Amino acid sequence: QEEEMDIDADPFGECSVVPLQRGDLRDFPSVGTVIPVYIEMPINELRPRFPEIGHWVKLRNLTFCTRSGLWQGVMSYQSKVHIISSEMEERYKRDSVERLKTESRWPQWCPKTLDGITVTNCEGIRFSTLMDVITHSQ
């Protein structure tokens, strides 16, 4: 049974959201979602479930909520951590690079038809994601 979250409660105490620096954001793929994930369990219980830094993981059964208008994930005791094999990690990276090399650079979630997606008639202007705009050097 799903548990409702009290929207007036502050489940994270006095923790503050620190924005990532532009240089750090450039390390992420330009297509996809970067979302903060908080834990509601002691860190010593969570640490054995994660691999070393630098490995990809798949997080399941997260709860999502908004705080100050921003989405954030919450790991609970019901959440699961799956370590992605190095072969799958390489495949994901390769697929992402190939998808981004195409002329349109449409993200994976993009529908086949372009209804509802803003397009321009300007030649040479390519699709840009929010991450492209945020990390642009100028």
Automatic annotation (TrEMBL):
GO molecular function, one term: G-rich strand telomeric DNA binding
Protein name as catalogued: Uncharacterized protein
A GO cellular component annotation in the UniProt record: nuclear telomere cap complex
Signal peptide residue numbers: none
InterPro entries: POT1
GO biological process, one term: regulation of telomere maintenance via telomerase
Organism listed in the record: Taxus chinensis (Chinese yew)
